[in-house]
Amino acid sequence: KWSDFERSTIQDIFAKIDKNVVGPAALTRCLTVYPWTQRYFGGFGNLYNADAIAANPKVAAHGKVVLNSLENGVKNLDDLKNFYKDLSVLHSEKLQVDPDNFKLLTDCITVVVAGQLGKAFTPEVHAAFSKFLAVVVASLRKQYY
Ligand code: ZNH
């Protein structure tokens, strides 16, 4: 279900972005503009305001974990449902994350990636990246019922 253009574009995006910047920036943005997402990160310490969130080392570390997971997803494009099965169970049963939040975080990732790619983030690139994130989110939702 992926065209050659989509495959190469998605791979290309991950080759171009700085994951160690995108992950922390996207998670910081999510926790700041959708403050109810903070409830899952009680163990992360001070999330008192935007500056505190941006400076929080646990937020930064977790942002990198999420981006790494997405990069590994790119290597499993044809089997994303399976690849994210365990993580779906974890988020559903153990972490009990409301799955609507996946979309909020991936939207933040899109905004930050767009900022890093600048002109290279054409409408076609945006569409391919959105499709990738949508399939990841659908895969993460899979074990919820
Ligand atoms: Zn999540 C965790 C991924 C979203 C919350 N995550 C996690 C991990 C990973 C992930 C890889 C690790 C695991 C282990 O350790 O095993 N996520 C992810 C992805 C996504 C997500 C890919 C999308 C895209 N999350 C999310 C959201 C939320 C979350 C939206 C909320 C809001 N996670 C979470 C938590 C955790 C996780 C809370 C745990 C952390 C700690 O504790 O450290």
From TrEMBL:
Q: Which residues form the Globin domain?
A: 1-145
Similarity section = Belongs to the globin family.
Give the GO terms filed under biological process for this record.
hydrogen peroxide catabolic process
**Which GO CC annotations does the UniProt entry carry?**
blood microparticle; haptoglobin-hemoglobin complex; hemoglobin complex
Identify the SUPFAM superfamilies for this entry: Globin-like (SSF46458)
Query: What InterPro entries does the database record attribute to this sequence?
Result: Globin, Globin-like_sf, Globin/Proto, Hemoglobin_b, Hemoglobin_oxygen_transport
Keywords of this entry: Heme, Iron, Metal-binding, Oxygen transport, Transport
The name under which this protein is listed is Hemoglobin subunit beta-like
Any single GO molecular-function term of the entry would be: oxygen carrier activity
Q: What is the lineage of its organism?
A: Eukaryota, Metazoa, Chordata, Craniata, Vertebrata
- The answer to whether UniProt assigns keyword DNA damage to this entry is no
